[in-house]
Amino acid sequence: MGEQLDIVGKAVTDLELEEIEQLVSGALDAGEEPQAVLDAMCAGMGAVGGLFEEGEYFLADLVLAGEVMKDGLKVLEPHLEVDSMGKKGTVVLFTVKGDVHDIGKNLVGTMLSTSGFNVIDLGVDVPKEKVVDAVRDNSAQAVGMSVLLTSMVDSISDVVSALSAAGLRDNVKIAIGGACTTQQLADKMGVDALGRDAVEAVRIFESLCEQ
Ligand code: B12
Fold first, then answer.
1. What is the pLDDT of residue 86?
2. Is the domain of 48 the same as that of 68?
3. Would you tell me which of 64, 116, 137, 143 could form a disulfide with 88, CB atoms 3.0–4.6 Å apart?
4. Could you tell me if the CB of 97 is within 6 A of ligand 1?
5. How far away, in angstroms, is 103 Cα from ligand 1 center?
6. Residue ranges making up the domain that contains 162
7. Cα–Cα distances in angstroms (integers) from residue 2 to residues 73, 111, 174, in the given order
8. What's the mean pLDDT in 46-68?
9. Is residue 85 part of a domain?
């Protein structure tokens, strides 16, 4: 990793909210690829998760880390290559009911948009009715659910059932992702795919939307 990338990744890990926009601009000005800057930010965020689990960081630090990621992405997003926007299909993306984690979802949304998908981001803590409406109103090909809390996994099957009841399940492919998801859970909940990171998310939706 280049020096500028190390600095950006470390700024995320060190929660440098005041500095992040300038550092991301600096890395881009120094000629770093926007995708490499995004990867560095993700690596920095991964380290934040580790520090939380080790008891070094607390909830307030995680909230701040989310703000740092958002501010950095604001600078970065216009530079990420946009590949024939919206041509690959429409994905309705959200974090499930009861869950407010959105850093991973936002990264998935950014990667999908810059890879040519039309992304309808419904936000966090989203009720199933809102998903059904969004799929219908936008004739979406796919649904992406982010789930980090084990206590909220039933929200996944609630959405699947609501889409079935609305007669839409056969028309959409569904993928899940987030810290608490496993292939076993995906099978149990009746979804079509599981994604471990934002890069894999792009590959999965490309394959799902082709089918
Ligand atoms: C940051 C964070 C928070 C922040 C969230 C800020 C925000 N704006 O999102 C705050 C402080 C708000 C928070 C709150 C809570 N949190 Co929290 N949080 C985390 C933490 C440390 C990191 C999550 C994160 O952002 N990771 C970085 C991103 C980039 O990774 P990611 O989310 O996994 O996303 C990637 C992939 O999973 C994938 N992906 C994600 N979504 C999708 C969707 C699709 C379709 C696909 C294909 C792929 C995909 O791609 C992403 C990008 O690469 C995790 C620990 C962890 N290891 O995950 C705990 C964690 C998720 N939290 C946890 C808990 C318990 C809570 C609280 C209940 C704490 C409390 N006592 O209040 C509350 C819950 C609030 C609520 N109702 O949701 C637990 C969950 C345990 C469990 N299994 O249920 C964890 C695992 C921590 C722990 N080890 O205890 N949290």
1. 63
2. yes
3. 116
4. no
5. 8
6. 90-210
7. 19, 22, 37
8. 88
9. no
